[in-house]
Amino acid sequence: MISFIKWVFIFIVLYLIFNIVKGALKIKRVFNGGIGSRQIDKCPACGQIIQVPSGESDEFLCPKCNTKLGRTSDGKLLIKVN
User: Fold this and answer.
1) CB within 8 A of 54, min separation 6: which ones?
2) CA 4 to CA 45: how far, in whole Å?
3) d(Cα 48, Cα 64) in Å, to the nearest integer?
4) Is the dihedral of CA 61, 63, 65, 71 positive or negative?
5) β-bridge partners, 77
6) CA–CA dist 44, 50 (Å, integer)
7) Phi then psi dihedrals of residue 70, to 5 deg
8) By three-state DSSP, how is residue 8 classified?
9) Are 79 and 69 a contacting pair, CB within 8 Å?
10) Whether pLDDT at 27 is above 80
11) Rounded to whole angstroms, how far apart are CA atoms 9 and 78?
């Protein structure tokens, strides 16, 4: 009987570890899909989480503070000056 309880406990612990790792990988995938391909980011001016439009335009506005934003060649989100 004790052996069965140990196996159930081990199964539960492994299941929890698996779900924690799976959740961490999902978060990483959402916030960093690869260089230059991120779709969700934080506005560098106000910190608002924004969905970056995917398209050919290099410039877009933050919906909260209306700051003009753009991406560098390596995918970093920056404030555009001109």
Assistant:
1) 39
2) 56
3) 7
4) negative
5) 71
6) 10
7) -160, 170
8) helix
9) yes
10) no
11) 48
